[in-house]
Q: What sequence folds into this?
């Protein structure tokens, strides 16, 4: 009987220590060397749960360190050992993040889908899948997963906004407008939402509304390209005051690229490229100028 109690006591202790290790997973402040050293002390056979804990912890440590390739390798390796449902949620989540950061989007999506399997009531897991699909321009897939996230929680601006953005990128402007307006209602000072809604209005040919919405979002810290776009939209809307305000914003930036843009745009205006009723849709010459300026500004 004493022997039985001793074995039972030992078993309980092992379970307790493993549970503590699992609970500490992903929150340890140990170094990479500490984790590798502890792994090296484990026997070749057995201790499967503890190995899974340590290897996955190592994978997450490497992810946070920025070594995405090795992080993914360690996280994949941890799944060969004894992992419980709670551990799988985190392992697949970080596996998806590691693959996404290293550009392996097919594997990232597969990992995010597994994370959602083990965390089915968490809207963020559906959102992760949607964002991955959006990043590879599969907007129909992205929309379907954003909608799944919304079924789980309709109160999150982090669902309404990207869903509206995905609708816009897929060309569904009316749906995009509905969702982005709701997002802006939930977060009225969010300039990213304002800029996205401006793109919707521009896509619908509502240039004055696009310009006014964009103007709400620009500040002295805004990129040159945003001020340039305000000039452009003001011209399309035949609203000189908006264009002038955009020009003033550009001139205050004072960078060589800004001054080049200002000069080139002034030359177009002198030629009458943007004058008259024919500017009912984007002028090709002005659009080409804006596109080149936008690309240049975004790479600074």
A:
């Amino acid at each position: 009987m004493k022997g039985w109690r001793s074995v039972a006591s030992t078993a309980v202790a092992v379970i307790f220590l493993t549970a503590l290790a699992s609970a500490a997973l992903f929150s340890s402040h140990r170094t990479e060397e500490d984790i590798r050293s502890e792994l090296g002390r484990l026997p070749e056979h057995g201790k499967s749960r503890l190995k899974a804990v340590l290897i996955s912890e190592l994978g997450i440590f490497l992810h946070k360190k920025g070594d995405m390739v090795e992080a993914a390798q360690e996280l994949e390796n941890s799944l060969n050992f004894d992992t419980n449902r709670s551990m799988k949620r985190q392992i697949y989540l970080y596996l998806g993040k590691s693959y996404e950061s290293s550009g392996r989007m097919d594997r990232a999506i597969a990992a995010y889908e597994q994370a959602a399997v083990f965390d089915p009531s968490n809207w963020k897991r559906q959102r992760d899948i949607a964002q991955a699909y959006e990043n590879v321009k599969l907007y129909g897939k992205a929309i379907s997963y954003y909608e799944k996230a919304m079924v789980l929680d309709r109160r999150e601006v982090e669902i309404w906004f990207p869903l509206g953005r995905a609708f816009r990128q897929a060309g569904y402007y009316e749906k995009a407008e509905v969702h982005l307006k709701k997002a802006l209602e939930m977060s009225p000072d969010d300039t990213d939402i304002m800029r996205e809604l401006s793109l919707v209005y521009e896509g619908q040919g509502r240039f004055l509304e696009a310009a006014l919405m964009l103007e709400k979002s620009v500040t002295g810290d805004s990129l040159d390209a945003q001020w340039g776009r305000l000039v452009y939209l003001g011209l399309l809307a035949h609203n000189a005051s908006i264009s002038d305000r955009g020009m003033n914003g550009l001139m205050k930036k004072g960078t060589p690229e800004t001054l080049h843009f200002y000069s080139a745009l002034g030359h177009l205006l002198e030629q009458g490229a943007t004058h008259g009723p024919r500017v009912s849709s984007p002028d090709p010459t002005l659009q080409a100028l804006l596109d080149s300026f936008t690309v240049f500004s975004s790479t600074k």
